[in-house]
């Protein structure tokens, strides 16, 4: 079999086992509380879409096994599920690890805390609106290296008895994993704000005992725990941990360990430990500003943990460095290994977008890999469960409703699709895969719709990848595309379709502001950014305006955004807004936002604005741009009704939305035909 990614598919020997490739699956656990009516209940402990992922061809993964009993065995009624999940995980030749958790809390023995409010340090830029509502739920006692604040709540110094108990718990759990037949173990507690890593930090660890003070002492407890695991599993079984290179915990007075402290710990772990999966930031229910560093948004550098991986390659050569975070294309994964920046890669969200991407890459079908948009809609904390799905894979959380493979329709129909944006393309491709005769009418010379703007803004790189994917799939399919043609009801009626899909999209809103003819619409500038002056005023701070302002500020232009709301990008989800805030802080000298302010007039040399108190000012600008939203082409869409009973309006002409709504609209209507 020929593959273009020889480094990625080179086997990896670690002690007594051989991984078939260099791709590790990042765990994406999901609580049973988050179940959907169309999803498989029994697979939640394994993570999102695990049944699909297990057939996709990863090299290694970790399973949560639950607590180990005092007798050294897994709980009786968990054993069958663990055994079956192991079988699924290894069916393509992969190796499977047991998650070894050093701490087990029992709510019936330790009552949860219910009467505390989080106490946060002030941080630059503040926290965006829309914080998930789960932040102040009852929590277990918060034990760390020392007394103080952690995650916004008071934390207690971990008593010596708990330290010793955690070491014994890890030893017992590791021994159970070996006896149960796991290939390797991954020890928890070292990443995303977990307790063990707090001992490494000189700021967080103020103890004067043998586990505090000097660097040697601060490393002692974590090393003792790993050594206990090593003794339990023997010398031939690999051991992994996931770390945060640092936590970025701005809201707890920056108590994070430094990257230097983590490197020093890893130097000492050589010979005990084998593999290090490198993450960063936190994964907490209150310290939201730091969560975007472990599950990055479009505003974060893609391979943001690779720099630490490079340090590991130089300073801890006995350890296998596995960067994780934003490695969402097979080309980037190959580059990481080919350039010796890491020994393997760990991937999460790309497996949600396309669970089969390793198999496709191995078979030389990389153009068929569905790209991940890094939109974070699959991350429940980002959206507070308002819309928890995948933008490009309708099957996520709908395994009962959406089949893994599309079956041919019972009756072949003639389907006409008007509009080649994401919604129209998805409808056309799905209908064609079901065996229908499909005609797609597109008014321009290429499909993609609003995604045509993506190549001109580097923050939209993932959207551009999705546009290219749709174009390739349309070209490879049996869909008949009529380009550079505007559909009319009379012409479509003459085609005598059995089903009609209307996906004519949306158009920019032009605000009724005096002098608006002196300004230009935002998306019209994407192909001629060099015409934009040094001083820019943007009327409208939604996602389009806020992102365009960021891109221009990054080029050194001085940009002022005028927004009537009290925040930028109000329609973005919480993590999107946090990521945007961090990016704006990087160019804060060039990026200015006038919130709760409306534009009164566009002038020859700028705009006249008024704030909520009625104070007016002139914002001088060489270029004035407006980005006040999009409106559905509803009347154009409704004109096509009455041609055939099987008619649907989908995508932006139904309601202006995101790629997610467009994808799902197109898929589900096509599947109903």
Task: Give an overview in words.
The protein has 673 residues and is α/β, with parallel strands linked by helices. It is built from 18 helices and 28 strands. The chain has a 6-stranded parallel β-sheet with strand order 4-5-9-10-11-12. The protein is globular and about 80 Å long. The protein starts with 11 loop residues before the first strand and ends with a helix. Residues 106-110 and 134-139 have low confidence and may be disordered.
Strand content: 15-25%
* Largest sheet report: 6 strands, parallel
Number of helices: 18
* Major β-sheet strand ordering: 4-5-9-10-11-12
What integer value in Å does the Rg equal?
27 Å
Low-confidence stretches: 106-110, 134-139
Helix content: 25-40%
Nearest-integer average pLDDT: 90
**What is the number of beta strands?**
28
What overall form do the CA principal axes indicate?
globular
Helix-strand blueprint:
Layout: E1 12-14, E2 17-19, E3 23-25, H1 50-53, E4 60-63, H2 79-89, E5 95-100, E6 143-144, E7 148-150, E8 153-157, H3 160-180, E9 184-187, H4 195-198, H5 215-233, E10 239-244, H6 259-269, E11 275-279, H7 306-315, E12 320-323, H8 330-338, E13 345-347, H9 349-353, H10 357-362, H11 380-383, E14 414-418, H12 422-433, E15 437-441, H13 461-476, E16 480-482, H14 489-495, E17 499-502, E18 506-508, E19 520-521, E20 535-539, H15 543-554, E21 558-562, H16 574-586, E22 591-594, E23 597-603, E24 606-611, E25 616-620, E26 623-626, E27 630-632, H17 634-638, E28 646-649, H18 659-672
Parallel strand pairs: 3-13, 4-5, 5-9, 6-8, 9-10, 10-11, 11-12, 14-15, 14-17, 15-16, 17-28, 19-26, 20-21, 20-26, 21-22
Antiparallel strand pairs: 1-2, 7-8, 18-27, 23-24, 24-25
């Amino acid at each position: 079999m020929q593959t273009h990614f020889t480094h990625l598919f080179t086997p990896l020997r670690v002690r007594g086992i051989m991984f078939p490739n260099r791709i590790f699956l990042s765990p994406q656990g999901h609580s049973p509380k988050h179940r959907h009516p169309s999803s498989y209940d029994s697979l939640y402990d394994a993570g999102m879409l695990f049944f699909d992922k297990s057939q996709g061809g990863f090299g290694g993964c970790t399973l949560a096994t639950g607590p180990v009993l005092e007798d050294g065995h897994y709980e009786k009624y968990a054993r069958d599920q663990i055994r079956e999940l192991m079988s699924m995980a290894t069916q393509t030749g992969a190796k499977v690890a047991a998650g070894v958790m050093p701490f087990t809390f029992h709510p019936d023995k330790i009552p949860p805390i219910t009467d505390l409010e989080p106490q946060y340090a002030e941080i630059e830029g503040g926290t965006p609106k829309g914080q998930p509502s789960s932040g102040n739920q009852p929590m277990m006692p918060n034990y760390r290296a020392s007394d103080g604040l952690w995650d916004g709540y008071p934390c207690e110094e971990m008593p010596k008895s708990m330290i010793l108990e955690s070491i014994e718990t890890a030893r017992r759990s590791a021994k159970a994993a070996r006896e149960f037949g796991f290939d390797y173990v991954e020890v928890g507690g070292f990443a995303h704000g977990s307790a063990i890593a707090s001992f490494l930090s000189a700021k967080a660890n103020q103890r004067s005992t043998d586990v505090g003070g000097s660097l040697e002492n601060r490393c002692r407890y974590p090393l003792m725990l790993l050594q206990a695991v090593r003794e339990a599993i023997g010398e031939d079984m690999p051991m992994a941990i996931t770390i945060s290179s640092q936590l970025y915990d701005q809201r707890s007075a920056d108590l994070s360990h430094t990257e230097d402290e983590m490197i020093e710990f890893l130097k000492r772990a050589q010979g005990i430990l084998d593999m290090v999966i490198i993450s960063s930031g936190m994964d907490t229910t209150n310290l939201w500003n730091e969560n975007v560093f472990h599950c990055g948004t479009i505003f974060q550098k893609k391979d943001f943990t690779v720099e630490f991986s490079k340090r590991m390659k130089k300073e801890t050569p006995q350890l296998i460095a596995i960067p994780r975070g934003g490695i969402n294309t097979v080309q980037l994964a190959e580059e990481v290994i080919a350039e010796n920046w890491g020994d393997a890669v760990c991937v999460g969200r790309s497996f949600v977008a396309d669970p089969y991407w390793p198999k496709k890459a191995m078979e030389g079908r990389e153009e068929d890999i569905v790209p991940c948009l890094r939109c974070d809609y699959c991350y429940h904390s980002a959206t507070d469960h308002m819309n928890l799905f995948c933008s490009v894979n309708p099957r996520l959380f709908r395994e009962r409703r959406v089949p893994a493979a599309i079956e041919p329709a019972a009756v072949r129909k003639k389907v006409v699709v008007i509009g080649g944006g994401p919604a129209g393309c998805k409808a056309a491709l799905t209908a064609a895969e079901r065996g229908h005769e499909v005609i797609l009418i597109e008014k321009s010379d290429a499909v993609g719709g609003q995604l045509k703007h993506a190549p001109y803004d580097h923050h939209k790189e993932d959207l551009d990848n999705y546009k290219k994917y749709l174009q390739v799939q349309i070209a490879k399919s049996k869909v008949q595309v009529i380009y550079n043609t505007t559909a009319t009801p009379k012409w479509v009626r003459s085609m005598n379709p059995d089903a009609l899909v209307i996906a004519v999209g949306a158009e920019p809103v032009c605000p009724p502001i005096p002098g608006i003819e002196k300004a230009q619409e935002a998306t019209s500038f994407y192909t001629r950014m060099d015409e934009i002056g040094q001083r820019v005023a943007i009327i409208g701070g939604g996602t389009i305006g806020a992102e365009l302002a960021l891109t221009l500020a990054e080029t050194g232009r001085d940009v002022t955004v005028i927004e009537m709301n009290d925040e930028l990008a109000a329609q973005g989800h919480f993590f999107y807004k946090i990521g945007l805030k961090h990016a704006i802080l990087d160019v804060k000298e060039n990026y200015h936002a006038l919130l709760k302010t409306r534009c009164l007039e566009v002038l020859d040399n700028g705009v006249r604005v008024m704030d909520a108190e009625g104070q007016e000012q002139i914002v001088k600008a060489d270029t004035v741009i407006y980005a006040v939203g999009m409106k559905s082409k509803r009347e154009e869409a409704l004109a096509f009704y009455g041609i055939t009973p099987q008619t649907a309006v989908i995508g932006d002409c139904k309601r202006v939305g995101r790629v997610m709504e467009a994808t799902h609209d197109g898929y589900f209507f096509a599947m109903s035909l």
